[in-house]
Amino acid sequence: MRKSVERLGEIRLVGISVRTSNWCEMNSDTAKIGRTMQKFLSSGMQTRIRGRRSPGTVFGVYTGYESDENGEYRYFVGEEVDVIDALPEYFEVLTIPAQAYVKLTSEQGSIPAVCIDMWQNIWRMKATDLGGERAYIADFEIYDERSKDSKSAIIDIYIGIQT
Question: How far apart (Å, rounded) are the C-alpha atoms in residues 69 and 49?
């Protein structure tokens, strides 16, 4: 897992979301993240988003944290947009505020295993290992052209940190 620190500007996304927790995600009967991502991708929802900045690059965002990784949060899946205009009613808008991030890049692997493995490593990291204290404002995964083949994917996870 490669790591670097970056400061990103505001990111505007359009997509769908669900409220969940890591506790719910540990049980296949109550897990919502995979189903939400699948709904977004398999129904072709992303093709109905106007003004997509980079078509096919999907964000999986963790935001609206109740506390930390042990509490509930909002999981949002969508694409970055240049303009927010005439959205179908099932879409939501999410603006990720500008902040500092630790960018972690995975090794090549299968989805979802590579993502789960990265998050387990992140949860074990102390602030000094991570590169800063987590902010719990917004963290996100990016699925781009490197993750098109789900058997040999590479993803980036951005963890918001306090500065």
Answer: 30
SS3 (DSSP) at 56: coil
User: Both tokens of residue 62?
Assistant: 């963790």
Range 2-161 classified under CATH 3.20.80.10: yes
Separation of alpha carbons 139 and 63, rounded Å: 7
Region 143-151: mean pLDDT is: 96
Q: Any alpha helices (H) in the chain, and if so which ranges?
A: 22-25, 33-42, 113-124, 127-130
Q: Are 46 and 55 in contact (CB under 8 A)?
A: yes
For the stretch 31-90, pLDDT in tens is 999 999 999 999 889 999 999 999 999 999 999 999 999 999 999 999 999 988 888 899
Between CA 111 and CA 109 the distance in angstroms is: 7
- Beta carbons of 156 and 103 less than 8 angstroms apart: yes
